[in-house]
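Postdoc handover notes: sequence design on the structure in folder B. Input tokens:
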């Protein structure tokens, strides 16, 4: 642009020499305006501008409008937003001598634009190479199983190392994310079989626990049922015992009353009382016995305490009526 601006100025000088002053003035103004506007530069808010003059750093320009001398000054724009660099997949040998393919991404941000340009040749390429070597170092000290289970710890270790190493060229590592850690296909198949076996084992244990719980529940139900039956039998037996006891008490009371009556009314006539009891029992059962009428009369009169009056025969009675 400086050359484009100088050409009108040279033409203006020629015009002055040949006495064409007006045309010379116009050409000079045009050349000056071209040089002036060519020096205006705009820096966006997401950038920082590094200005050099004759190859030497002069200043860093913040966001906004600035002016530099065309051709003599040069401005380099540096992106200061969060950026991502993809770490290419690589084979890593783990502690248990297995090959694993590791892929990761690194998120970083430039904090010092001047250092990112002058302290390192290419900070992106440098960061990528450093991330690859750090991943090999960290995962190489772990088994494949630990590497898959402790990805968060790996991310933190790699981030810490990268942040420390890149501080010299104005880069801050924000975070590291491992995308995949894949073992060879044969190892992957073996791991899948192990996981499947573990899941089947857990399922079998759960099934056994369920069966045991069910059996225990059935056992408890049977025990409760047996206890209920036992309790019912005990209560039934106790009821029967109470009934027998009540009957026995009633019989005892009966015997007591009979004994008291015998003592009051049949003193010295125990044989007669026994005969009456036997006769009562026989009559209750509707039993028929052939007994001597005179003896029955004697038993009854003795029990009643009266003296029987002898009955006259029919012939004697008739004779008395005739007289």
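Designed sequence:
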């Amino acid at each position: 642009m400086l050359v484009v601006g100088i050409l009108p100025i040279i033409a203006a000088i020629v015009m002055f020499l040949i006495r064409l002053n007006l045309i010379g003035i116009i050409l000079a103004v045009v050349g000056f305006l071209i040089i002036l506007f060519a020096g205006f530069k705009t820096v966006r808010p997401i950038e920082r501008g590094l200005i050099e003059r004759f190859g030497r750093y002069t200043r860093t320009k913040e966001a906004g409008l600035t002016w530099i001398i065309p051709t003599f000054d040069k401005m380099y724009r540096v992106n200061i937003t969060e950026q991502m660099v993809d770490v290419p997949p690589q084979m890593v040998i783990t502690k248990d001598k297995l090959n694993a393919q590791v892929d990761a991404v690194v998120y970083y941000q430039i904090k010092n634009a001047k250092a990112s340009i002058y302290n390192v040749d290419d900070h992106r390429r440098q960061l990528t190479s450093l991330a690859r070597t750090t991943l090999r170092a960290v995962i190489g000290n772990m088994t494949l199983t630990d590497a898959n289970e402790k990805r968060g710890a790996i991310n933190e270790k790699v981030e810490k190392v990268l942040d420390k190493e890149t501080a010299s060229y104005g880069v801050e590592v924000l975070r590291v994310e491992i995308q995949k850690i894949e073992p060879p296909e044969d190892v992957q198949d073996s791991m899948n079989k192990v996981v499947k076996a573990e899941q089947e084992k857990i399922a079998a244990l759960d099934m056994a626990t369920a069966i045991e719980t069910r059996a225990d529940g059935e056992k408890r139900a049977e025990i409760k049922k047996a206890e209920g039956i036992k309790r019912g039998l005990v209560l039934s037996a106790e009821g029967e015992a109470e009934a027998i006891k009540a009957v026995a008490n009633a019989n005892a009371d009966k015997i007591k009353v009979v004994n008291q009556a015998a003592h009051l009314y049949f003193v010295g006539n125990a044989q007669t009382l026994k005969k009456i009891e036997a006769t009562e029992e026989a009559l209750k059962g509707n039993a028929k016995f052939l007994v001597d009428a005179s003896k029955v009369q004697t038993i009854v009169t003795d029990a009643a305490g009266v003296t029987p009056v002898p009955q006259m025969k029919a012939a004697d009675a008739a004779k008395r009526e005739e007289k």
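Context for whoever picks this up: The beta strands are 40-43, 47-53, 56-61, 64-67, 73-79, 83-93, 99-110, 171-182. Don't rerun without checking with the PI first.
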